[in-house]
Specification:
Number of strands of chain A: 21
Helix content of chain A: 25-40%
Order of helices and strands of chain B: HHHHHHHHHHHHHH
Shape of chain A: globular
Structural class of chain A: alpha+beta
Structural class of chain B: mainly alpha
Number of helices of chain B: 14
Strand content of chain B: under 5%
Radius of gyration of chain B: 24 Å
Radius of gyration of chain A: 26 Å
Shape of chain B: globular
Strand content of chain A: 15-25%
Oligomer: heterodimer
Distance between the termini of chain B: 5 Å
Largest interface: A-B, 65 and 69 residues
Helix content of chain B: over 70%
Number of strands of chain B: 0
Largest sheet of chain B: none
């Protein structure tokens, strides 16, 4: 007995010595105090990446990692979705918008030491256009299909010389430059693709500011500084580690404790707590989304414009924002958020007005109201944190004019499938933009071509269709904006939806973080972020 | 004993087969198309159709089942639909994380639970006894996510004693060899990291261990009370043996059988049921792995994940059954 007591005491002694020793060593390896403004930034987030070959993936958690490792030909401005040069330093558009000639940056190398050049660009595009929907899903949505499909926009990608690459299109595609800036179309090292084959998604290699280092699935992904990065003096950080902490409150706890430096997915209800902590700062991501309450315009009573307008007068957006978004959203008057060029700011929203709603209902012959099914989203999305609660708030307002809404919901996959088939009479849903172009909202969600796809309202308007198609093939940005503004006016009058809000996702970080701007598209490179 | 073990392992096969079949049918009965969930909201109809076909989900269920079973018998757990990585490659790190956490949790539960139960029985109807039983009652009904967040708030943030989340200090990550970090850090001779890993294990270990701890305490107490009323204990007391030895030696050994059974069952349960703890503590364990797979209808991952956890569960209970004979020589197989 005495002997075991002694052993236990000895063990405790050793343990406490170790604890003391570890404290000093963690301080020295912390890296936070280094003078170069570098250090490793730990980014806490709610989910792991699915894979690290961006062309293959569709989720933001994958893209935020691949954007550190790889770069695209064109890029976005820091604060909005205007196109700026990236790997292509300039370009010329000719032949009525059917030919794009890009001049590439000279002397850029992939992280595996091979050259980035026109050939590499061609090889990447060849790989994607010879793929299929299961391999490169985004490619088809943005470029109209694959090589064998008649709708495919790209006719040919050709290397003219080492630093010149020429794209020939079958028809003009106005958002082409914005499409190229999307994360899935980042340029990979062809040598690495050959080397790793099917496993390339675990060993991404690009020209970006950080090199991929390690992936512990479900836990962390780390990238480290690319010492040979082509932009002088960048990146400032020594590396970034992405850490999965699923629970929003725990993630904030880890930030408060200093175990992570930056987190996304902050609960709006925690914002006051963060503001009160002088060691933390809040970052607000500009909105590139829309949450909406849609009607199936083929189904009675929503086939009547007056009914749709009446309901538009019955939704109190300010209340929704106050109660369910903690003020972190803008009321939506049109489908387009303000980060996207072409938003029509002159549109006067319907506004909450019971009397007007009653009048319109009377006109439509529904003086006494009616019964309806209101579909509510089963999952939480940045644009709609709680579909069920929002549905209940709308339900209460509808009841005031005698409309009895019965809330219905389905499992998410089924929900989307049924919406697509037009089975929902009235529904809550939303959209997050892909390429930051108005086309990606208005055409994708409200054109007659996209019925059976993302036009869940089954809204069919010839004048809108004409405007949207014209805008797709117009190169002049100013003219396009005019066309989109006109389309929004017609959509506003027809009211196939009640646009609800444009939500602004919130991030929080320690005060040491400098130079970080959350990009509206949902992720961004940390190339010029530093930690003091 | 040997033939008993063989017979029990033989019995495993039909049990696991039956379970695989039930899981297989159940996850297909819940609505939701994996292809839709993988490709997301923006996906076109054609893309979903193509992917459904590639994943073999357009095949009738029986041919999918036969296909899956054929793979299993060849030792192939299948391929994740979502990450398109073999499950056998993916699973171990998650499983190791859970095993490490579960072992720590059950260790805390056993050490605290058994002793609390013994002392309660020893001083039956004392304030200590009432106190322990009240705490045990609270412990059984405690919501883990709440307990976890409270631990983080007080122990980590307010008192600054232990880290909030994760398995290791991310600023000096552990080099994974076996993925059991306690072992890995020792293999690398990094004692500082070992301490760091221990520190990370304490809070989630307590959160996960609380319910089993309460159950074990109650079970130990009632089992001890029963034994302490028996004749041989009276004899031991009568011959003047110190009470400590009466309780810890003579009573405990005889009271252990039901307690060991409960410990075995609880350990098994922890392996699959640690989802809440894992979520709160940013722990990359197998519970989260399967939970995410259910969210995205990643059928092979759900099937194989549950299969592996169930196999472990059955093996632990087999081990417990064999342990009976060691504890009580009167038991023979």
């Amino acid at each position: 007995m005495k002997r075991s007591l002694l052993t236990a005491l000895a063990l405790i002694l050793v343990l406490s010595l170790g604890l003391a020793g570890c404290k000093s060593s963690s301080e020295s390896t912390g890296g936070k105090g280094s003078s170069s403004g570098g250090g490793v930034m730990i980014y806490g987030r709610g989910g792991d990446a699915v894979g690290l070959d961006p062309a293959h993936e569709t989720d933001g958690e994958s893209f935020i990692v691949t954007e550190q490792v790889m770069e695209t030909l064109t890029g976005y401005k820091k604060e909005n979705t205007d196109v700026v040069p990236e790997l292509a330093k300039s370009w010329k558009i000719s032949d009525g918008g059917k030919k794009y000639t890009f001049t590439l940056e000279k002397g850029v190398k992939f992280q595996d030491g091979t050259d980035f050049n026109a050939d590499a660009v061609v090889k990447n595009f060849d790989r994607w256009m010879n793929g299929d929907a299961a391999k490169f899903p985004y490619y088809a949505s943005m470029f109209g299909g694959y090589k064998k499909d008649p709708g495919h926009v790209i006719k040919e990608v050709k290397a003219i010389d080492d630093t010149t690459v020429e794209f020939t299109l079958k028809r003009p595609q106005a958002p082409f430059l914005k499409n190229l800036a999307m994360s899935p179309f980042a340029i990979s090292s062809p040598a690495a693709i050959d080397k790793y084959g099917d496993k390339y998604g675990e060993h991404p290699v690009g020209t970006g500011p950080f090199k991929f280092k390690e992936w512990k699935r479900g836990d962390t992904i780390s990238v480290v500084k690319n010492d040979k990065y082509w932009k002088k003096g960048l990146p400032k950080l020594d590396g970034v580690t992405f850490k999965v902490i699923k629970d929003n409150s725990s993630r904030l706890n880890a930030l408060t404790k200093g175990e992570v430096d930056l987190i996304d997915g902050v609960n709006p209800s925690d914002l006051d707590k963060i503001k009160a902590d002088n060691k933390l700062q809040i970052f607000e991501r500009p909105s590139m989304n829309v949450a909406y309450f849609g009607f199936n315009v083929e189904k009675a009573p929503f086939n009547k414009k007056e009914v749709r307008q009446a309901i538009s007068h019955l939704v109190n957006k300010d209340e929704l924002i106050k109660n369910f978004y903690n003020g972190t959203a803008e009321p939506a008057a049109t489908p387009l958020p303000s980060s996207i060029a072409g938003q029509n700011k002159d549109i006067q929203d319907y506004g909450y007005d019971e009397a007007k709603a009653k009048e319109l209902l009377k006109k439509a012959g529904y003086e006494k109201g009616f019964k309806m099914d209101l579909w509510a989203m089963p999952v939480s999305r940045p644009y709609m944190p709680n579909g069920q609660k929002i549905a209940e708030a709308i339900q209460a307002n509808l009841a005031k004019v005698g409309i009895k809404a019965n809330i219905v919901t389905f499992e998410w996959g089924t929900y989307l499938e049924k919406l697509r088939k037009g089975e929902a009479p009235a529904f809550l849903i939303g959209w997050t933009g892909d390429n930051g172009d108005a086309d990606n909202f208005l055409y994708a969600l409200l054109d007659k071509d996209t019925i059976d796809s993302n036009n869940y309202s089954r809204y069919k308007s010839e004048p809108v269709h004409k405007l949207l198609i014209e805008a797709q093939s117009t190169a002049d940005e100013g003219k396009r904006e005019e066309l989109y503004k006109k389309a929004q006016e017609i959509i506003h009058e027809d009211a196939p939806w009640v646009p609800l809000v444009h939500a602004k996702p919130q991030l929080a970080g320690t005060n040491s973080i400098k130079g970080f701007y959350p990009h509206p598209k949902g992720s961004q490179s940390f190339v010029d972020v530093s930690m003091k | 004993m040997f033939s008993y073990t063989i017979r029990r392992i033989g019995l495993l096969i039909p049990v696991l087969l039956g379970m695989t079949f039930i899981v297989f049918m159940m996850i297909r009965a819940i609505p939701g198309n994996p292809a839709q969930l993988i490709l997301g909201q923006q996906a076109s109809k054609q893309a979903i159709a193509t992917l459904t076909k590639q994943l073999g989900l357009d095949q009738p269920w029986y041919s999918q089942f036969v296909h899956y079973l054929t793979g299993l018998f060849q030792g192939d757990l299948g391929m994740s639909l979502k990450s398109r990585t073999p499950i056998s490659e993916e699973l171990w790190p998650y499983l190791a994380a859970t095993i490490e956490l579960s072992l720590v949790a059950i260790l805390i539960a056993v050490v605290v639970g058994v002793n609390a139960g013994i002392i309660s029985a020893w001083f039956q109807n004392s304030w200590f006894d009432y106190g322990v039983m009240l705490i045990a009652l609270i412990g059984v009904s405690m919501p883990i996510f709440w307990l976890g967040l409270m631990e983080q708030y007080f122990v980590s943030i307010k008192w600054d004693l232990l880290p909030t989340t994760g398995r290791d200090n991310i600023r000096m990550p552990v080099e994974a060899i076996t993925h059991l970090y306690l072992l890995d850090t020792l293999l690398e001779g990094r004692f500082d990291q070992f301490i760091e890993v221990v520190k990370h294990l304490i809070l989630p270990g307590i959160a996960l261990g609380t319910i089993p701890m309460a159950i074990i305490a109650r079970m130990t107490r009632s089992s001890m009370l029963e034994v302490m009323r028996s004749d041989y204990i009276r004899t031991a007391k009568a011959k003047g043996l110190k009470m400590f030895w009466v309780v810890y030696k003579h009573s405990l050994k005889n009271a252990m059988i039901p307690v060991v059974t409960v410990i075995g069952l609880q350990t098994g349960l922890l392996l699959g049921g640690a989802i809440l703890t894992e979520t709160i503590f940013g722990w990359p364990g197998v519970g989260t792995y399967i939970y995410d797979a259910i969210q995205s209808r990643d059928y092979p991952v759900i099937q194989s994940g549950i299969l592996v956890v169930a196999t472990l569960f059955v093996l632990i209970n087999l081990f417990v059954d064999i342990l009976y004979a060691a504890i009580d020589p009167r038991i023979k197989y």
